[in-house]
Amino acid sequence: MLFLALWAAATLNFFLPRIAPRNPIRERLITMSQQGGYIEAGIEDMIKAYEEKFGLDQPLWKQYMSYLSDMARLDLGYSLSAFPKTVMEQISEALPWTIGLVASSTLISFLLGSLLGALMAWPKSPRWIAWTMAPLMTVSAVPYYLFSLVLIYLLAFRGKIFPLGGGYTLGTVPDGSLRFYLDAFKHSLLPAISMIIAGLGSRALGMRGMMVTIQGEDYMILAEAKGLKGARVFFKYGVRNALLPSVTSLALSFAYVVSGSVLVERVFGYPGIGSLLATSIQAFDYFTIYGIVFLVILGIGLATLLLDLAYPLLDPRITYERS
Question: The whole model's pTM is what?
Answer without folding.
Answer: 0.69
